[in-house]
């Protein structure tokens, strides 16, 4: 999960608060692509 932190922070920085709420679903898709 250590690798997730910078990725999430980057997303929050780029898209703002919206990314946080929408990251929950998006994160799962990104995780599958990343892994």
Automatic annotation (TrEMBL):
This is Alcohol dehydrogenase. It comes from the Bacteria.
């Amino acid at each position: 999960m250590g690798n997730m932190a910078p990725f999430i922070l980057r997303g929050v920085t780029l898209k703002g608060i919206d990314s946080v709420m929408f990251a929950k679903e998006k994160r799962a898709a990104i995780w599958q692509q990343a892994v």
